[in-house]
Design goal:
mainly alpha
C-alpha cells in the first residue's frame, strides 16, 4: 500500500544521488528535505500540545464533575472543545502523516540493491555497506563492526532522549511512567535495530538528532509562547456560571 510513496521517495533519492555521489550523504539530504517539509506540522502540533497542557485542569474538572453521567460528560467536553476552538487530536496529526513516509523509507532503504543495482552503498567508508546490518557485520569482522554498533547505540539513545525531555513537562506518576516507557522503548530499539540495514539506522539517527535539536531550540520556545498566549486568553475569558435548574414541584392543595 506504500508503493506510490516508495516510488516518489525513490525518484527523489535518485535525483539527490545524481549530485551528492555518496549514498550516506544522499540519505542525510533526504532527511533534511523530509524534516523541513514536516516542520510547519510539528510547530502546529507543539502549539496544540501547549494548549492541551493549559486546558488540562479544566478538562479534568469537567470529567470529575460529570463522572457519574458519561453522556453529559461527553456533551460538556464537546462544548468545551468548541468554545475553545480546540482539537484534542491536533498534536497527533504530524505523527499520522509521518508514519506512511517512515514505512515507505524503511521499504526503500531496506531494499536499495533492488532499486539501484550495481551501486556501492557506502557512507564515506565510515559505513562501507549501508545495506548490511550490525549483526551481520559483527559476525564477519569485529573491528569493522564498530561504526555499525555506534549507529545502533545512537538508534536507541536518540529514541530515549526526546521521551525523557517530554517527561519534564509531566509530574508524579505520569512522568515516572513516561520515563519507564522511554527506557523500555530504547531497549526494544536495540533489539529491532540489531538486524536493520545501516542505511535505515543512518536515516533514523540523523532524523532523531534533528528532532532533538528542534525540541531544544524551536519546539520549547513555541510551546512556551503558546502556553503564555493560552493562559492570557483563559484569564480574559468571561466567567461561566453553571446554572442548574431545579425541578418544579407542584404545590400541595389545602384540604377544604
Amino acid at each position: 500500500m506504500w508503493d506510490w510513496i516508495v516510488e516518489i521517495l525513490f525518484q527523489v533519492l535518485r535525483l539527490i544521488q545524481g549530485f551528492a555521489v555518496d549514498w550516506g550523504l544522499s540519505i542525510i539530504i533526504l532527511v533534511v528535505i523530509v524534516r523541513l517539509l514536516l516542520t510547519p506540522l510539528m510547530i502546529k502540533s507543539s502549539r496544540s500540545t501547549a494548549r492541551m497542557q493549559v486546558l488540562q485542569p479544566k478538562m479534568q474538572e469537567i470529567q470529575a464533575r460529570y463522572a457519574d453521567d458519561p453522556q453529559r460528560q461527553a456533551e460538556e467536553m464537546q462544548k468545551f472543545y468548541s468554545e475553545n476552538k480546540f482539537n484534542p487530536f491536533g498534536s497527533c496529526l504530524p505523527l499520522l502523516i509521518q508514519m506512511p513516509i517512515l514505512f515507505a523509507l524503511f521499504t526503500l532503504l531496506n531494499n536499495l540493491p533492488n532499486y539501484f543495482s550495481g551501486e556501492n552503498f557506502s557512507f564515506y567508508q565510515i559505513l562501507p555497506d549501508l545495506t548490511t546490518s550490525a549483526s551481520r557485520m559483527f559476525g564477519q569482522d569485529l573491528g569493522a563492526s564498530v561504526p555499525y554498533l555506534v549507529a545502533l547505540v545512537l538508534f536507541a539513545v536518540l529514541t530515549l532522549v526526546p521521551q525523557l525531555y517530554m517527561s519534564r513537562n509531566q509530574t508524579g506518576e505520569q512522568a515516572s511512567s513516561m520515563r519507564m516507557m522511554a527506557v523500555v522503548m530504547s531497549i526494544m530499539m536495540l533489539w529491532i535495530g540489531w538486524g536493520l540495514p545501516a542505511g535505515v539506522l543512518l536515516y533514523y539517527d540523523v532524523s532523531s538528532a534533528w528532532q532533538v535539536a528542534q525540541q531544544l531550540f524551536v519546539t520549547q520556545k513555541v510551546i512556551e509562547k503558546a502556553k503564555a498566549e493560552e493562559e492570557e486568553r483563559m484569564q480574559n475569558a468571561p466567567i461561566e456560571v453553571d446554572v442548574v435548574r431545579r425541578e418544579r414541584k407542584q404545590r400541595p392543595h389545602k384540604k377544604k
